[in-house]
Queue: 4 jobs
Job 1
Amino acid sequence: MIHRAYFCALARIFDTHMSLTRQDVEKIAHLARLSITEQEMPVYVTSLSSIVDFVAELSRVETSGVEPMAHPLDGQRQRLRPDVVSESDHHEKYQLNAPSVQAGLYVVPRVIE
Amino acid sequence: MHNLSLGELADRLAGRQISSVELTRHFLARIERLNPSLNAVITVTAAQAVDSAAAADRRLAAGERGRLLGIPLIHKDIFCTDGVRTSCGSRMLDNFTAPYDATIVARLKAAGAVMLGKANMDEFAMGSSNETSYYGPVKNPWDTTKVPGGSSGGSAAALAARLAPVCTGTDTGGSIRQPAALTGITGVKPTYGRVSRYGMIAFASSLDQAGVFTRTAADAAAVLQIMAGFDPNDSTSVDTPVPDYPALLDAPLKGLKIGLLREFFDGLEDRNAALIHDALKTYLSFGADTVEVSLPHLPLSVPTYYVVAPAECSSNLSRFDGVRFGHRCAQPRDLEELYKRSRGEGFGAEVKRRIMTGTYVLSAGYFDAYYLKAQKVRRLITDDFRAAFEKVDLLVGPTTPTPAFAIGAKVNDPVTMYLNDIYTIGANLAGLPGLSIPCGYVDGLPMGLQLIGPHFSEARLLGAAHQFQRATAWHAHAPGGYE
């Protein structure tokens, strides 16, 4: 992590003055399983950097002792339903939207050689 | 026919002065004539609409009555409609035919409402101008060089142009209230959990809520009455009774305590502020009182939202992988390339930007600094609202900082675009109901008055909006050429 931070800092000083580098954006795109074209890349480096700078404002807020809020209605509990069958089988209808189906299965490129 | 209220239409349908088929054909003809210059409606279901209208006419002939029986409407294309393309404004779902109806679609259908088609929208509801749609930008009927707002821009433009008397929408950070303001109509975002989200394509699950566009608050009350209520298919749907909204519209406003948010007026442009103060005079004439309140953390709403919403979006949109439905790239070498190219080609620039923002704030090493931090600030903002509602019944302010802006003006600067939602995002973070009603003009373009209330105060908000509309005429103005 220290090395990464160091090289990011170097990249910022010498390359782009952006809070995210091209390498950062490539890594994020990989994590998000998104292909980004050569032409798109500089646009994302600039715009994602500006968004990260913008939201960095939050770091100045004092939040010690504040409980993170994940749900807008406090006290609302996720319901459990009885474990009984409530749906019938619609797989043929659902698979009409699939790009490739064979024998009721979704087809993807070979995963195991 | 296209300027009548839902109540007037229901009376004429019940009295057999018009039939639902005639009404439906009237609006279909308007869509055919007026939509090409607006691009508000992207799918027209004409044959299906006439069939549904004929079915509604049979129910009417059999003596059945209902506020929406035989009334045409347009759904935002984020709601699944059985057998009809549901694109969410994206190339990713351009080939997607929904295999079932969203709960609100089914409820409105059961009430006899007639779907005319599906409305354009920002891709996956990510945008404030309706410029991110795969199907091209929507034009504002008040000035076709201007945006209609977003993300429910197609619904708002269609309603303002009188292409339907009811349009549905969704609001994650202002996506109903902001376009309602910019197109001079009434837009209602209910309390989080009040309306089912089953079959509504998810963007940010702790913020998304379905709602409605109409010309008046009285019309909105009639529609919300049918949309709202518990749904076992939505785990965030709230199981509390739905009040009779139309019956409560005239509840007296004497003694109502209206909060003026200091943070909403700081830096507000003079002409916008003057409209809000004029509106407040109307409320004072009803016997309401105004109290100044402060929500010190409210200015942090936009950065908080732009961590929380992209984080949830990156998680929700991981389902679009090119395997089970949606766009698949041609000839992928392997599974990883199938995912990456299908998503890279299927999603537009803003959606990819938000997925990557969300992926970044959730990634190892940044989660605490961004996502957890934003969730903590979200609580501070919510606590500010709670404290304010101990002193006041509702909050009043502007819906947007400016009137509709030019198409193309902000597309290259995401942060400037995000600041459009500065007055609307707070209600989403706190899960509060809010609405926007027209309150005048700046530069000849409509502006909105925003009302925000405590959780489940829709009846009071609708009543306050309705009584304002009885005393004013802004809501009755149609854009030139669409009267």
Job 2
Amino acid sequence: MIFSIVRTALIALKRDRASLALSFILPIAFFSIFAVIFGGQHDSTPKIKVIVVDEDQSRASQELVRGLKREGSLRVSTAPPATGKNAKPLPDYTAATAEDAVKAGDAPVALIIPKGFGQHPIAFGPGNEGSEIELLNDQSDMIAPQMVAGLLQKAAMTAMPAALAEQGMKYTDEYVGGLTPEQHKRMQADLDALKKIEDENDASGSGAAGGSSKDDGFGGIIAVKSRSVVGENKRNPTVSFYAAAIGVMFLLFTASGSAGSLLDEQESGALDRVLSSRVTMTRLLAGKLTFNTLLAFVQLTVMFLWAWMVFKVDLPGHLPGFAVMGIFTAFAVAAFGILLASICHTRAQLGALSTLLILMMSSIGGSMFPRYLMPESIQKAGLFTINAWAIDGFTKVFWRDMPVTDLWPQVSVLAAVGIALFVIARRVARRWDCA
Amino acid sequence: MATGAKTTGPAKPLEVEGLVKRFGKVTALDGVTLELRAGECLGLLGPNGAGKSTLIRSIVGRVIPSEGRVAIFGSPAASGQARQVLGWVPQELALYPRLTAKENLGAFGRYHGLKGRELAKQMAWCLGWAALEDRAGDLERNLSGGMKRRLNMAAGIIHRPKIVLMDEPTVGVDPQSRNRIFEMIEALRREGTAIIYTTHYMEEAQRLCDRVAIIDHGRIIAAGTAEELIANAFGSCSQVLARFEGPQDGIGAWVERHGGRLVDSTAEFTIERSTEIAGLLDDAAKHGLAPADVSLRRPNLESVFLHLTGRELRD
């Protein structure tokens, strides 16, 4: 009897391709995506983009910049990238333009090497006031500042041996030519200071200098002063990111589910009846698209209202940007749902295909974890997803406080994607036009 | 009666000429020609798979014919004018289950371009016509099977078309609901609406239709009034039915000798004079056959269909 039940279930499963796909393809697809992102894909480990401004232009500072450029896990920029094939190289970053670039999200970290750094490159001893390297960071990326600060210390140790030796000699001349009680006292003071910092680092568990804290001290051979230029006043830095990230993923699910009403209507015969009235296929799809766009926008609005009320995301302060991003995201997502419903022949097919595509898009598009954690190849692949563009746009609005006009790349892409998907959906839906 | 689009003067409500529809290697319609006259009810009688629904869907523009033409008051099928004067009641319950009866009517009314007072008036008329006034606020999915059928019909005539195509509207309903549906159709006929009514129940065709077209294997094999069809097939002949209880040897040979047919356990014979019955029964008795009952009847449309195709309507 049990065998009969197993046999019947097996036959039913074999005939239900949607369930088969969900059972076997989805886990394999997800395993592969996560393996590529977090597995041993060292060749494409994400490089951290760092802007370096060398205000000192001394031998020591230039050596340090060269040392940073040799670091395989950093991509150092000293000037903005030239746009266009024959465009002239742009002037180097200044402290101000580097800060603007971090604010705009061009790079998560900028290092400003101040004038006079070459005179006192190491962090201890007298006369090093004002030679701290300034690390400007964007709090939305919590990993990049830590890594850059650590690699900065490494670069200093390996790239500036001459400078360090010279500094050592200077101290030797100063202190070793007969230690007076006063000299002894100074050395002891410096040693005490070093010990104290070591103790503090041990107690706080922090490593090298920098990080996202507001520490002004140093934690290594080079003094680094860290400053967050984006998100320093945000009460809950990652909530706005996740409101957009999770919101878009569920919007995709809702939109494809809602668009599935087309398949219900086809099955009941209502679709045929509607199309025998004055309603044409194009009008019908446009109506569904409009409804699904509004539904998705309302869904996003509710989500951000909740984020505002409970998690203090500043929705009232960003209403225009939210409205623009919300509408265009909803439009693209709705068109995606209509296309899926047009492609599929049954609800079961739609369920399987939408689950597969949406989870894949969400994983590489940044809805599950930030894209900056992913290998570069996956980050680039993420640009083919609605999630990535929508999240980038919402990040610009809520994180970087950028004006609505700066949303044009995201808005253009989402609008183009929505239109393209709808046009394809209309072509695919020709199978419903007439038999 | 309220109307939709204007119609051209002398054109007939519906003309179908040489309609052919092939789905791959299957020919669903094989040169169908028929016409629907103003105010008449034309029955389209045929077994399942005969091509009735394909013909109806060709008329409403949901199937593009491989050959031939369809003209609705002179306009091609699926044209704007045709859509406004045609009403379609599909075989399926083509409704929105999560909408109430009234909301369903409102939705399909709007799809036909109705709005405002005109829409409200038509909705009220349709609810009354379908005897659903007291269930207007109920969700479609909560209505009984018969009510759903009536609502399905009402949604097809919400724009008060001049021609209504009804595709087996009584499928799966109980006799009481079926009678209610007949009354609705008769009410429409009194208003002068031309109707094509497809069915495989000959009783329905005989009760409701002025003329009947018999369709089989995608072809119209006979058309006319029921009386004409019967007269053409049987003349003044009658039918003798002899029913047997249980299997008896020699029935087949007896039926064959007298040119009859054996359907299930009933022998059918066509006779010209009633005196032939005695001969049939004498021969049966000689061969030890004892029918449980014997009856005499005038041939009906079912008999015509059997006569023309060699098959029963409900095969």
Job 3
Amino acid sequence: MVDLIQSTLDGVMSGSSYGLLALGFTLIFGVMRRLNLSYGPSIMVGAYLGTLLYVQFGLPSALVAAVVVAGAIAAAVYVERLCFAPFAVGAGIASMVSSFAIWMQLEQASILVLPRHSYPFPTLGSGEPWQIGPLLLRADQLAMLLALLALSAGLYVILYRTRFGLALRAIIDNRTAALLVGIDVNALMLKAFALASAIGGVAGFLVLAANQQVTAMFGMWATLKGLIAMMIGGLGSIPGAIVGGLVLGLVETYAHALFGPQIRDLSAYLALFAILVLWPHGLAGGRAEQATPQRGERWTTI
Amino acid sequence: MPPLLEASELEAQYGWTKVLHGLSFGVESGGITTILGANGAGKTTTLRAVCQMVKTGGQVRFDGQRIDGKSTEQIVRLGIAHTPEGRGTFVSLSVEENLRLGAYARRDRTGLAEDYERIFQYFPVLAQRRRQQAGTLSGGEQQMLAVARALMSRPRLLLMDEPSLGLAPLVVREIFDIVTELNREGTTIFLVEQNAHLALKVAHHFYLMEQGRVTFSGTPGQLAEDEVIRRAYLGSRQAAG
């Protein structure tokens, strides 16, 4: 029983980081209706920049966090201008393929700067777990849960209480009509892209701080986990991203506890497969109508 | 006085296909101007070309200022509102949010509350449904919302694309009553309409369009209505022959 509770706790914690990654991913998808495969590698650029400053100058954790987020935003702006702004909404495949090319570019650029397979990453707190009865709780993992709660609440406020958010929801709903009420769709998309990658940057920092190291696989890892969590929850849905992340975290942790670490990643794909068979629009299937193209708008997802 | 909106040699194309072939027209300030023509004549494209939502050639002037080459969003900010084909409702947003978006481009945000009042006077049904999701409105209510949203930007020129499409005759009449009322209060209107009878009743000036070209321009009464309809829907060549 204690094991089950501990696994659930661990699953929620690691699921929080997946939820954060999916939150950024889904924001881009919702606004752009296009998949940004460079999402993870953009975060990796920020992470490598932070690591470089940490390794070279021993930058404190808080500053490293700021560098990671800033680097992720800068890389995302680069990706958006190169892979998304030049193509129309209908050209989903062109954007996706070019974001894949830029993935390779960002990853190679990062590896050129820090060529070893792994580097140390600053930790949050002492790294010693707290003992609560029979349960263990780590500060850095708790930070993930808190960050998920805070950032999703923040995103909710931005989307539902600000003029910027209203305009974003208008673009998500009907891009043509958004243009016709005078929304500068291109400028807003860039901002949404930057915002999404800032959230991704926070997620990246927290994950790496918990791992206490950064590896060259991080970009791919972040894209894959974010993508899976987003698809489980439902493309473009914000509650879906949170739910998808938590489900993914729980499935992985339970599989790990029951069948060992080799099964952990496999279980994620099995879960994705099962959920997509049962709920093709993801768990937050209430947004199913949004997954169908609107009148006069042709878009391609994958 | 020059027309409020003036296009000369306006061309438009989708991909490689040219749809407008050098269209020239003017929309007089304070009037209702309408374009009539069969399906596929390029009426909707003409409105889209004014707002630069398609690739265009030629010149468009609004209030003497060149607007071709500007972005859609800049053109809207100059005071041109467009109720598009299919109404362009933000279906997942509430009626009130739709209206708030109508005022998005407005520089002066004073008088917003009065504008809501004015619009709810015109469209009492929208006041009742203020918090409702716009996608749940009926077709007629959505068309009213489209007009109401356009009005929230306090436009000097209102482009309307087929406001009667798919609506019951009573609702159509209600909407056209509002259109004439708005015009009387000073909004210039450029109307694209399938229903020639209805359009000719409200318009001060009309153009006939065929295959991306203007084939006739005049005031209602200048041509007998059946002649207009014959030319608009059967083509001038057949009519002439």
Job 4
Amino acid sequence: MARYSVSFVSKTMVAVADGASMTSNGYAVFLQGGSATMQLKVNEISVSGEDTASTPTTMAFGRDSVVGVTAITATSNFNALLDATATAPGTLAVFGSGATTNPTRSATLGHLLNPTLNTYGGIYRWQARVGEEIGIISATQPLGECSLSSVTGNGKVSGHILYELV
Amino acid sequence: MLIITDGLPRGLGYLEIDQRNVEAPLPPGTRRHFEAETYTCSHCQYVVVMNPDRVRERYKCKGCNHHVCDDCAAERVAGKPCKTFWQQADEAMEQAQRQTASTIILP
């Protein structure tokens, strides 16, 4: 089906522990199913550091135990179809980096990937093995949302997440 | 016909951490440019970065015929049955669909 890129541009991370609510605009992005039966498959994540001084930043891409809801904002986030000839599905995935209720990274499922880099020019990139994409199912916890946020460090980052809306 | 018998995962994912542009000292032992293969645990979907120096065998689940992470391997060895992430997802989807399709009005 339709393949998408959701990106984040020059976002300054606010470190957050597992089980604690994130701060609006203090995380890169969350990606949530747009309906109870939606499936997303994440197959690439890239993070590029943009700081002007050494800033080791440990990030986490993983599932949220509280999903982002109510007044979702997507400041410096962009979501676009990758294939120009594809037709967008009727219901799209939900994405953003701010909300009245911000996501909370799961203490048990919140570290599917740990992009760690020095954001003073560092680059992190992961591509899934074919058929081993990270799945996001439905729109509620525990499987309905993943987010990319900082565990420690306040690096400034840009990057993208490529996913397929199944 | 070629039969592969070494039990190692193939057609892997790819991880790159490129810090060659970082104009700052890195912690001792940290490589400026790190590349590694990855695979995704079929049970919990954790992405396993394959340590090139590892010599211990990677556990392959006989239930789903797929490599799993060390945590899930320990659970399997302890007797937990094989249940892939997509089986869990199917169950969640079925449940969601049953809830939305239900027209029973309870008193």
